[in-house]
Amino acid sequence: MEIKKVYFSQKMSLYSPIQQAKQPLPFFQSHQESRDAFWRSAKKQCAFKAVSKKYTVYFTIAKSRGDVIFNNLLIEGETFEWKKFFRYMEACARFFINAVCII
């Protein structure tokens, strides 16, 4: 798995994948609100993507006292299994905790 920061300047190149991405958890009322919030976070340099063989997960996080809080998730790729999905997100959270990433 590779985790990269997403920049607002990538909006045109990522437009189609993010439009087609699924919103697995109801952080927002609609997919459109979720996408809009993702790009607002990208402007603040707080948006990321995690790429693996099966999925690309676009997400935003907040970091507080050693905790990583996901506040938006969009998934591009094959149908996912919840158990594998949560393990995947745990790996993403550990990346930020271990890297002491500045957000």
Summary of the model, kept short:
The protein is α+β, with helices and mostly antiparallel strands and 103 residues long. It is built from three helices and four strands. The protein has a four-stranded antiparallel beta sheet with strand order 1-2-3-4.
Give structural notes.
This is Patatin-like phospholipase family protein. By secondary structure, the chain is of the alpha+beta class. It has one domain (about 1-100). The protein has three helices and four strands; from the N terminus they run βααβββα. It has a four-stranded antiparallel beta sheet with strand order 1-2-3-4. The longest helix has 18 residues, at about 80-100. It is globular.
State the shape. Answer: globular
Number of strands: 4
State the low-pLDDT regions, or none. Answer: none
Biggest sheet, strands in spatial order? 1-2-3-4
As a percent range, the share of helical residues equals 25-40%
Instruction: State the order of secondary-structure elements, H for helix, E for strand.
Output: EHHEEEH
Rg measurement, Å: 13 Å
What is the strand content?
25-35%
Domain module count: 1
Annotation field: number of helices: 3
Mean pLDDT: 87
SS class: alpha+beta
The rounded distance between the terminal residues' Cα atoms is 20 Å
Main sheet record: 4 strands, antiparallel
